[in-house]
Amino acid sequence: KQAFDGLTPEIFDSVLSDCRRQTGKVVSMKPRRKRNLLRRAAGIAAALLLMVGGVSAVGLWRLVNTAVASVSLDVNPSVEIKVNEKEKVVSVTALNEDGQEIIAEMDFEGSSLEVTVNALIGSMLRQGYLSVSANSVLVSVESTDSQQAAALEQRLREEIGGLLESGGISAAVLSQQVNADEELRTLAEEYGLSLGKAQLIRDITTQDSRYRFADLVGLTINQLNLLSEELTLGGVQRSGQASEAGYIGSG
User: For residues 205 and 199, what is the distance between their CA atoms, to the nearest angstrom?
Assistant: First the structure.
């Protein structure tokens, strides 16, 4: 300890003396403003990136989940497919009990319209709703864009016809654009129909006063197709001939 104390210089008095001489002297400290500004700018930039990212995410969500067109397929099963502007499926809804059997456990959200239609028509074929004796399908398109609706209507009519032909069935496909007014929506809701089937039945009863709307509600599309063959339904496009194999001729 004595050796260590001898090696340690005694400078307390000199340091104290220096401090007394510095009394009253002002030492200015310049703030480091550049770094603070950089930090603030970085914070603002990060906030802007988050905001832009949030807006982009919301826009993408709306693009994917906003339906711009509705396609209904009617045989006796009735299903409604809603698609976004990229023709990706937003939802598929069964409109009656047979439609629920057709959809079963299949999940179509995010699938293309083409894949969805193929799967639904395939399910109808497998379960016997479409056959040689019941070969008619009604395709109805509802959209605020009339050009899109017309293009979809034609494409789906041809595509479904091809699917049935490949399954060994001579197809009869009816297609139309839906112009849903308040009366049509009321009829569809009251009788549990798709807007497309309700519009077809209303057109038939308008052309032929022998029929009442309620009388035709329970008929299949094949039966309605046969019933309306000699009528002029202005908005309905036809391809193929409805099958009469399910009926016994008078001869």
Answer: 10
Model confidence pTM above 0.85: no
> If we measure between CA atoms, which residue out of 226, 169, 236 comes closest to residue 202?
236
> Going by C-beta distance under 8 Å and a sequence separation of 6 or more, which residues neighbour residue 208?
231
pLDDT tens for 166-209 read 989 999 999 999 998 999 999 999 999 999 999 999 999 999 99
Cβ(171)–Cβ(137) below 8 Å = yes
Torsion angle defined by CA atoms of residues 61, 63, 64 and 68, in that order, rounded to the nearest 10 degrees: 140
Token pair 């059997």 in the structure block, residue:
101
Buried b (16+ CB within 10 A) or exposed e, 136-162: bbbbbbbbeeeebbeebbebbbebbbe
Q: Dump the DSSP string for the chain.
A: -HHHHHHS---HHHHHHHHHHTTT--------HHHHHHHHHHHHHHHHHHHHHHHHHHHHHHHHH---EEEEEESSSEEEEEE-TT-BEEEEEESSHHHHHHHTT---TT-BHHHHHHHHHHHHHHTTSSBTTB-EEEEEEEES-HHHHHHHHHHHHHHHHHHHHHTT---EEEEEE----HHHHHHHHHHT--HHHHHHHHHHHHH-TT--HHHHTTS-HHHHHHHTTTS--TTEEEES----TTS----
